[in-house]
Amino acid sequence: MSTVESIPKKLPGMDVNKLGKDLYEVFIGPQHPGSGHMRIIIRVDGDVIVEADPDLGYVHRTMEKLAEGREFIKVIPLMERMAILDACNITLPYVEAVEKLLDIEPPPRAKYLRVLLCEINRIASHLYGLGIFGVFLGHSTMYMWPFGDREVFVELAEKLTGARLTHTYPVPGGVRRDLPQGFAEDAEKAIRYMEKRLEEYRKIFLDNPVIQKRLIDVGVISKNLAAQLGIVGPNLRASGIKYDVRIIEPYEVYDELDFEVPVFEEGDAFARAWIRIIEMQQSLRIIRQVLEKIPDGDPLHEKFWAKAPALYKKVFEQTKRVKLIPLYANLKVPEGRAFARGEAGRGEIVYMVESNGSTKPYRVRVVSPSFRNAIVFRYIVPGHRIADLPAIYGSIDYFPPEADR
Amino acid sequence: MLVDIITWPPLFQLVIAPGLVAALVIVIFILWFERKTAARVQMRIGPYHVSPRIGGGLQLIADLVRYSFQEIIIPKAADKPIFIGAPLAALVISLLPVVAMPFTTVPKYYPIPMDYSLLIAVALSTLSPIFIIAAGWASNNKFSIIGGLREAFVITAYELLIVITALAGGVAVLSYNLTDIVVAQKPFYKWILFTNPIAALTMFAAILMATSGFPFEIPEAENEIVAGAYTEYSGLMYGINMGAAYIKRFAYSLLFTLIFLGGWLPYEPSSGLIHGYLIPLVIVLVKSTIVMAIMSFLRAVYGRFRIDQALDGAWRIFIPLALIGFGIALIEAYLGVYA
Amino acid sequence: MSIVEILKEKLSSLNPEISEGKGFVSVKVEKDGLKQTARILRELGFDHVKTVTAIDYPKENEFEIIYHASSFLNEELAKYIIELRTRIPRDKPEIETLTDIWSSAEFPERETFEFFGITFKGHPDLRPILLLPEVVDKKPLRKDFVVKEEGIFR
Lengths: 405, 339, 154
What we know:
The structure holds three protein chains of three kinds.
Chain A: E1 24-28, E2 39-45, E3 48-55, H1 63-67, H2 75-80, H3 87-102, H4 108-136, H5 141-161, E4 170-171, E5 174-175, H6 183-206, H7 209-215, H8 223-229, H9 234-237, H10 245-248, H11 269-293, H12 302-305, H13 310-319, H14 326-329, E6 336-344, E7 347-355, E8 363-367, H15 369-373, H16 375-379, H17 388-396, H18 400-404
Antiparallel strand pairs in A: 1-2, 2-3, 4-5, 6-7, 7-8
Helix pairs in contact in A: 3-4, 4-5, 4-11, 4-17, 5-6, 6-11, 11-17
Chain B: H1 2-6, H2 9-16, H3 20-41, H4 59-69, H5 80-94, H6 117-125, H7 129-138, H8 142-173, H9 178-183, H10 192-195, H11 197-210, H12 222-225, H13 236-260, H14 273-297, H15 307-335
Helix pairs in contact in B: 3-13, 3-14, 4-13, 5-7, 5-13, 6-8, 7-8, 8-11, 8-15, 11-13, 11-15, 13-14
Chain C: H1 3-10, E1 17-20, E2 25-28, H2 34-44, E3 48-57, E4 62-70, E5 82-89, E6 94-96, H3 106-116, E7 119-121, H4 133-136
């Protein structure tokens, strides 16, 4: 065994800290099957965690700085890489902020198409979250089934937009493509399949006595603490606060659709697992309503294609597909500052866009829902056991690339 | 002459069947079965490419060959003799209980005198866990120490259960001799599984706790402590560690088969090598493989308990159940069910 | 009364500039009145902060620090987003922290500290959250830190 004297006292980048008596410091680090792309430094007394410190920034990609050097339309694929599973939800508030600065409003058909893709992405994102949650608890069946069923919705998105994950579908003024033929029948089949599968998930995961013992009364966040810490998304709704951006400040056409927002009172990890399944059921309901109610029209505001060269106009009128016209490349946005928010799969995402009249933004500020949820590690985890850390991590659906931007 | 040397019971039972060779073959089959059933439940195919015609059965042999060629990396600060010796010792000592098990009624084919074989088999099975703790200590890694500690805690949960429930079988028949226990279960309805189901169920759960079977896969919880005591092992040592748990499970399920499932019944061994030794042996192996297959299937259904929940359940629920099973066995002995 | 009138009434002592923007209500105060304004907003019912950030104006030699506050528990106020902003000089970037009023400002203030070099006095745990120490010294998000992209054709 190596002795204390043989360990060098200070290597570059390595500090030697003093710990309390009887405390043991464990680095649930980036190379760990239960940590994702982040590090959690925990101090343990026996089996009970006394202090936890999240160490973020392993996948920081400097999106805010890069956005200052690119044109307005090029920022959309940049911001999409935050959480490509949820691509439409993540970039839609940015497009809305730019539309507020430009003072135009997209046509109604475009709004319905945006909502359709948003709900498909929300289901895919919740399935991913449930899969990771299952594998953190050791339940490998709950890992394979959601990932297999997610294929159905990723292929549905591919029929609509042409890409499986990185859609880049909303643009300022509308959307890039129209509905293809036969989409409504495929969507109906997918919805019926998913409704049957949600019953199976309930039977094997939520009614499973082992899972119930692992999750009930673990990671309890009370109502006042949730509002004070500022956490968002299904975690907030599982603590008793009815806050969903789709009903507080309805964007696109959410005020014309009929859906419910589930709210639970307990605030523990079990409520957070239940709420994701019920939200998926509501999203299926929204998709059905959108496909019934969608009006006819153009998918893009006419300002952008009426003055385009002849080839672009011909492609648009025949196939309703947008070849990205030069008007977008030199889009000069008037001076001002705009703020927009939306409800992504994991919570509320906010954008602040400031422009000084040129073709590139002056400042883009984005706060993703996972960054706002990261404070849970600091304040809720202490007091639980080591084995509760993956349970809490999976239940808040923390996604490191989204948090680090 | 050669046949006499090979089938000399101490050598045959410890090395060939159900010792090392048969244990390895059955463990390879059970690992393949576990991966295949879990895959079918989870909407996928499982092992497929290595030998498609027989459903990927040779996948495990391919894995073993791959492990043999990998480099064994020993950390510089690890305690070398214990690091290398502990998994090997665990593997060999987990197989020791087979030397105290009879597979026939012919006394010529007993390795040791079988008068107290139940006690000797249970006692030998408790020797192996110390080596897992030693491997966790010698690795000089925080996750290994936490894994070794968890194994030490789990021992306090299952040891007592196995001892009480195994002795329940002996008490019902009023004998410590495993041969008497097997022979007393002669008609089909007199299997101790049916007359004392509580003790059988408790021993089943205790075997799951002892060998990291789901839902008690606590000492090697992958998402909490990487691989527990086995974190720093690579190459063939990793293969040995992963197989050691299954070999331990095999030894326990042989004991379970002899006590609760009637051993080699309904076959009556007569004299001669084949009729007196090999055929009852094969019947016992088939029954214990079925028991192990049921344990493998639970992998696809359950999650994983926390360590304090497992200990809590063991001391508040399972030990009272085991004592009730023991009480039922005492009542059966009083009423002379197996006289 | 609309939200603008309520705010004008409660904050009249601090002489703010209140206007409606595109999706928010803007309240601009002097640097010294920031904490008092935050306290009044907290009492009104705005119980969390959505984001804390800064914008660099090198031509005017100032930073503009922005807090966006809203409400979870009060359903009427949840529709509004209050943008609380102030200006501080670029040569001496210091300001008082608001974590004792709004706990949800803890992580965003750390992020603004490491990207702009603005010190928040009184913050319980001011250290970099996303970047490494060598990069924090360069203060990345200021306008004088220029990202040179390699040209393909050069």
